[in-house]
C-alpha cells in the first residue's frame, strides 16, 4: 500500500534521515521505534508530505509526487505529535475537519461526512465530548479527538506520530485496538510509539531507527532483542513472552 524507497531528509543543511526504504502492506500495523532524535518524526513528516525529501514514495502503486494536494490528503492521513488546538472549535467540528479532503470547495457537510465523523468519535469514545470546545478538554481527550479526526479522513494509509502519548492505559489499548480494526479493513497503519511492549503486542511489524537509519525490521519477537535495545537505547532489558505476546522489563542503563 505504501512504498518508500531511498528516502533522505535534510533540515538546515543537516541530513536527518539517511536512505531509508520502507514498505507497508494493506492490512498491516507497523510500529516505528527508536530513541529521541532517531529521525522517526522527520521520516513520518516526509512520508506525509509535510517536508521535502529525496527518494520516491507511492501509495497503492501511484507516486505521490504526481498527486495534487487534495489527492494526497485522500491517500494519507497524518496525526502529528503535537496535540494543540488554539481556538474553541467544538470536538465534533474538529473531527469533521478530517472530511475536508472529500468535499468540494464550498460544499456543505454531508450525511456521509457526519456518519464518518461519528464512527471515528465512537472508536475513540469521545462522542460525549461532541459539543465541548477543544480548548476546554483534557490533553488525553484532545489527543483522542485528533486521532478521531485522522480516522474520519478515511484514507488507505494512516501515519500517526506518538498517538498514545498522554493517554491512560485503557485508552492506549482502545487506540491500538482501533488501529488494528482499521488495518483489518485493509488500511496500512504506520505509528511511532515509545512504549516498546505496547508496540510489540499490537503491531504486525516493528521498524527500529537509530541515527536516521533503519537498524531492524521484522516481527516483534524477531526484531526486538536485548542486544539491540542495549545498542540503540542504551538500556539493559529482560525480554520474555506470555500468552499476550512479548514482555519487556528495563533493568538499567547498559553502561552500569
Task: Supply database-style keywords.
9 helices, 4-stranded antiparallel sheet, 6-stranded mixed sheet, 256 residues, alpha/beta, Rossmann fold
List strands and helices in order, with pairings.
Layout: E1 2-11, E2 14-24, E3 29-33, H1 40-47, E4 54-59, E5 62-63, H2 69-75, E6 76-79, H3 91-96, H4 111-123, H5 139-152, E7 157-161, H6 169-184, E8 188-192, H7 196-202, E9 205-210, E10 213-218, H8 220-223, H9 226-232, E11 235-242, E12 245-253
Parallel strand pairs: 3-8, 3-9, 6-7, 7-8
Antiparallel strand pairs: 1-2, 1-4, 4-5, 9-10, 11-12
Helix pairs in contact: 4-5
| Secondary structure tally: strands | 12
The averaged pLDDT comes out at 93
Corresponding CATH superfamily: P-loop containing nucleotide triphosphate hydrolases
Sheet with most strands: strand arrangement: 6-7-8-3-9-10
Report the top-level CATH class.
Answer: Alpha Beta
Globally, the shape reads globular
Annotation field: number of helices:
9
The CATH architecture: 3-Layer(aba) Sandwich
Low-confidence stretches: none
Structure characterization notes:
This protein has 256 residues and is α/β, with parallel strands linked by helices. It has a single domain, classed as 3-Layer(aba) Sandwich (Rossmann fold). Helices cover 32% and strands 30% of the residues. Helix 4 packs across helix 5. The protein is globular and about 60 Å long. It starts with a strand and ends with a strand.
Amino acid at each position: 500500500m505504501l512504498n518508500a524507497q531511498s528516502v533522505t531528509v535534510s533540515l538546515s543543511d543537516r541530513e536527518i534521515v539517511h536512505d531509508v526504504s520502507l514498505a507497508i502492506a494493506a492490512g498491516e500495523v507497523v510500529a516505528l521505534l527508536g530513541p529521541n532524535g532517531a529521525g522517526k518524526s522527520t521520516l513520518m513528516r516526509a512520508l506525509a508530505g509535510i517536508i521535502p525529501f529525496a527518494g520516491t514514495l507511492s501509495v497503492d502503486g501511484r507516486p505521490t509526487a504526481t498527486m495534487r494536494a487534495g489527492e494526497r490528503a485522500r491517500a494519507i492521513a497524518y496525526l502529528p505529535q503535537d496535540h494543540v488546538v488554539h481556538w474553541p472549535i467544538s470536538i465534533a467540528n474538529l473531527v469533521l475537519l478530517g472530511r475536508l479532503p472529500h468535499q468540494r470547495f464550498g460544499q456543505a457537510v454531508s450525511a456521509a461526512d457526519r456518519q464518518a465523523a461519528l464512527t471515528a468519535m465512537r472508536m475513540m469514545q469521545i462522542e460525549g465530548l461532541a459539543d465541548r470546545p477543544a480548548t476546554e478538554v483534557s490533553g488525553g481527550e484532545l489527543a483522542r479527538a485528533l486521532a478521531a479526526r485522522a480516522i474520519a479522513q478515511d484514507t488507505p494509509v494512516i501515519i500517526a506520530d506518538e498517538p498514545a502519548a498522554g493517554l491512560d492505559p485503557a485508552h492506549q489499548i482502545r487506540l491500538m485496538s482501533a488501529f488494528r480494526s482499521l488495518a483489518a479493513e485493509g488500511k496500512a497503519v504506520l505509528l511511532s510509539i515509545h512504549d516498546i511492549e505496547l508496540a510489540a503486542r499490537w503491531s504486525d511489524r516493528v521498524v527500529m531507527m537509530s541515527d536516521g537509519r533503519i537498524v531492524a525490521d521484522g516481527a516483534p519477537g524477531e526484531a526486538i532483542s536485548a542486544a539491540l535495545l542495549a545498542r540503540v537505547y542504551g538500556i539493559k532489558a529482560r525480554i520474555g513472552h506470555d500468552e499476550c505476546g512479548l514482555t519487556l522489563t528495563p533493568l538499567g542503563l547498559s553502561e552500569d
